[in-house]
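Re: zinc ion structure - here you go.
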Amino acid sequence: MLVDAHCHPTEEVRAGRDEDEWVEAAGEVPLDMLCLMSTDTWDQRLVARAAAAWPHKVVPAFGFHPWCVHTLSLEHPPPPAHEHYEALLGPDAAELVPHLPPPVSLTDALAQLEAYLVAHPHALVGEVGLDRSFRIPMPHTTPRRLSRCQTPLAHQLAVLRAQLALASRYGRSVSMHSVRAAGPTLDMLADMAAHVPGFSAIGVLLHSCTLSVPSLAQVQRAHANVFVSFSTAIQTQHTTELMRASDPMRVLCESDYHAWAELAPRTADAIEAYGAACGAGTEELRARLASNFHRYYHYVETKS
Ligand SMILES: [Zn+2]
């Protein structure tokens, strides 16, 4: 049983791959299951197609990634593009605005997300999260050049909390990104657990985790529903230590990769790296990771 807990192959279609051929290719991936993330209003439809074609393999995840939430407006209906982006991103947004899509209201975005959750009763919510290092890229630049614009944390939090509330209401586990945002992530989790009914009854996966060892220990002590997953795509000098510090019953492995053909080898690499850090044998480890995945997916509290 080999599961990729978090991946992004919709990027292949964004880069120009034929969509029908892409849907077919998912069937060739030598994994038992893979959690296919969406990131914005555009790729949720692709995730739905792949999941419909391969219902036993593709676990769809619907959500708005922190790198895309600048395209969402908290006002309904949303203001004109230049007003929205300049208010959100400041005067530096002027050179970006002509290249950015008209904003969509969070209300409409959540309605779309909810419709996908209803249509796919086994879907996860993802990818959602917080990122304090990301800067919005300048469009059509090769090599890619970054603008100075960052989406304010308060805006990211508003979109994240709304998505987590929806996930809690529908009892769906979530796949979450947290980069340079340990403090706000810990505060948000504590607040959601205290105030949002159902939040403690869904699994929350901190994917490609780069929290510090003390932050991860604190989060897993406080929240029985927080899982963590490791990839070889994102590693820091603390990763080995972090692998050893995480609760072995709440660890998953993932490719965090954007091409079908690479998911299985990269997931296997992540499992091998985790096994090497923790001194676990491959057979025993694969069985444990598979049962961890099922506990996260249909969240069931670990009794240890
Ligand atoms: Zn991701």
